[in-house]
Design a protein that fits this description.
alpha/beta, Rossmann fold, about 40% helix
């Protein structure tokens, strides 16, 4: 099978490409490299790389040539990107998705797996379950919800089988290109490994469901291999962990005792709790995450130390969060 992976040079994309190649698939990566890293893509005869944007129809059409299926990951990854550039981020997310769907229809490609977001659930009680009413609170979530509806439309009208995943808080080795937009676990590890106190918005009791990027890639692979009709699944661990608990685990692994530096939450649209109900992802999709948060933290510490040995201090990226706390344009 030949698979196009849009955003394939990003964090989830690279893990997904690596897994696809390990399973003997041919892969075409389409990425504009704004946040992706070409030099971290796996080498192999089965990999073709195309630099370009999914918002360009001609580029997408060319990338889809002789492709059997698509995994669509290209989109701004952080809700902060939408808060800072609401027009650009929203147009990019929605336009790229409809362009991809339309060019798939024209090319006769019938299988799509795509990343939505768990943020579509916000305003609901936790744990978040598929089937809950969706009333997104921010433009990232609203754009992704629209994408789910567009995928269902192309499924109903044109027969494209589209399986969406709603990932929770995805983190992992390989986020350096994202800098201050990296996952909070990653930012904490980068800071604390380099001796900085971790910057925490608010009291640190807010919780997330942390999913390692390689596990997310496994969920995408299972969705790709399935014969399931168009629908959406959660992609999470079902384990709720507070920021304070994350910091405590990092301290344990480092043998340190760094205290958090609390700052004001710079946005009124900020989730207090996020955790997945994993019943359907387990029983229907067959997906169960394998990598614990502690193991993921150990891998991130090793990566941060490797960068430090080469003279790069990844810890400075958390200063982005300190600056945001003083940015009144983000207060809602």
């Amino acid at each position: 099978m030949k698979v196009l992976v849009s955003g394939g040079a990003g964090l989830i994309g690279r893990h997904t490409v690596r897994l696809l190649l390990a399973h003997g698939q041919s892969v075409v990566v389409l990425d504009d490299l704004r946040l992706g890293k070409y030099d971290e893509l796996p080498a192999g005869d089965g990999l073709e790389f195309r630099q370009g944007s999914v918002t360009d129809r001609a580029t997408v059409s060319a990338a889809l040539r002789d492709v059997d299926a698509v995994i669509h990951l290209a989109a701004p990854s952080s809700f902060l990107m939408y808060e800072q550039d609401v027009v650009g981020a929203t147009i990019g997310t929605t336009a790229s998705f409809v362009i991809l769907l339309e060019e798939m229809r024209r090319a006769g490609i019938g299988k799509l797996v795509y990343a939505s977001t768990s943020a579509v659930y916000e305003s609901n009680p936790v744990p978040y379950r598929e089937g809950m009413p969706l009333s997104p609170l921010d433009m990232k979530a609203l754009s992704k919800k629209w994408g789910e509806e567009a995928a269902q439309y192309y499924s109903d009208r044109y027969g494209i089988r589209a399986v969406g995943l709603r990932p929770f808080s995805v983190y992992g080795v390989g986020e350096s290109a994202k800098a201050g937009y990296a996952n909070i676990v990653t930012l904490f590890v980068w800071a604390m490994t380099n001796g900085y106190r971790p910057v925490v918005w608010g009291d640190g009791l807010q919780t997330r469901d942390y999913l390692y990027a390689a596990d997310m890639a496994e969920a995408l692979w299972l969705a790709l291999c399935s014969d399931l009709p168009s629908q959406c699944f959660n992609a999470g661990t079902g384990i709720e962990t507070s920021f304070i608990e994350v910091i405590a685990t990092i301290n344990e692994e480092l043998g340190s005792s760094l205290e958090p530096l609390h700052v004001e939450v710079p946005s009124g649209i900020y989730a207090r709790r996020l955790v997945a109900d994993t019943t359907r992802q387990r029983d229907v999709l067959g997906f169960t995450p394998r990598i614990s948060l502690r193991e993921g933290i150990r891998r991130l510490i090793a990566e941060a130390r490797s960068f430090a040995d080469r003279g790069t201090d990844l810890g400075v990226h958390q200063h982005f969060f300190e600056r945001l706390a003083a940015d009144k344009t983000l207060h809602r």
